[in-house]
Specification:
This protein has 86 residues and is mostly helical. Helix content is 78%, strand content 0%.
Length: 86
């Protein structure tokens, strides 16, 4: 399989998303739009970390389901608590 990116590229993408969400928070935007943006960014960053830095792109389906399932469960639980608190 040929890779068109390196770990450094993934790291730069994660850092870019982190700066982007920080600037969105500092701009004074609040409420549901910011939270949706935050969750999408978190899911992208988490998926990149699981795939590239934890080395789970070549392992069995069980390990990928466990790790991605954990990521989705935590983000979904936080979203539910946020919506309930409105």
């Amino acid at each position: 399989m040929r890779h068109y990116y390196t770990v450094h590229t993934v790291w730069l993408a994660i850092m870019g998303l982190t700066i982007w969400i920080y600037l969105a928070g500092e701009s004074g935007v609040s409420g549901v739009p910011l939270m949706l943006f935050l969750f999408v960014t978190t899911m992208i960053k988490g998926s990149l970390i699981i795939r590239e830095f934890m080395g789970l792109k070549g392992v069995s389906l069980l390990w990928r389901v466990i790790m991605y399932g954990w990521l989705w469960t935590v983000c979904f639980a936080i979203a539910v608590v946020y919506v309930i608190s409105l």
